[in-house]
Design brief:
This protein has about 160 residues and is mainly β. The protein is built from one helix and twelve strands; from the N terminus they run H-E-E-E-E-E-E-E-E-E-E-E-E. It has two domains: about 80 residues, Trypsin-like serine proteases (Thrombin, subunit H, Beta Barrel); about 60 residues, no CATH class. The radius of gyration is 15 Å and the shape is globular. The chain starts with a helix and ends with a strand.
């Protein structure tokens, strides 16, 4: 089951005509946006991205904090605003095992569920299931290998065990 603390942190994003998914994490009192690097191809500090919020595209200035390596498709962006509530989102390797179900959370083809809420319309990302089939060490980090069918637009989305 995916809990709201995950949904609330996942966003449909757009940069130079490319759309995908990104999610927030909190580190030492600051919020960062993580995604797939290919979603933000060619981006540099001072550029803008668009995030779909409150039924509209919002333009945000960013700072590129890091791209871990050329072999990993990950990018970390710093924003000048707090984008999502800072719900607890425990990041741990504990309890992860080969063969367990995991989930992709994102916006394939820009699609989402629409839910009416007290404070407006919520655009909820979609969820797909995969299997954690293994892991490898590369460039000093661990890459989790997921076996699951994915669609364009899930790129950059949160994976959840």
């Amino acid at each position: 089951m995916i809990t709201f603390n995950v949904y609330d942190r996942v966003f449909l994003v757009r940069h130079n005509g490319s759309t995908g998914t990104a999610f927030t994490i909190d580190v030492e009192g600051r919020q960062y946006l993580l995604s797939a690097h290919h979603v933000f191809k060619g981006i540099k500090t001072g550029d803008s991205i668009e995030i779909f919020r409150n039924s509209d595209w919002v333009v945000l200035d960013i700072k590129v904090v890091g791209v871990p390596s050329t072999s990993l498709d990950v990018i970390v962006l710093a924003l000048n605003i707090v984008l999502s509530p800072s719900h607890p989102l425990p990041l741990t390797r504990g309890g992860v095992y080969i063969g367990q179900d995991v989930h992709f959370v994102g916006f394939p083809f820009g699609m989402h569920s629409t839910v009416a809420a007290k404070d407006g319309i919520l655009h909820i990302p979609l969820v797909k299931r995969a299997c954690l089939s293994g892991s490898i060490e590369e460039d000093g980090g661990r890459i989790w290998l997921l076996d699951g069918f994915n669609n364009p637009g899930f790129s950059g989305g949160a994976g959840y065990c």
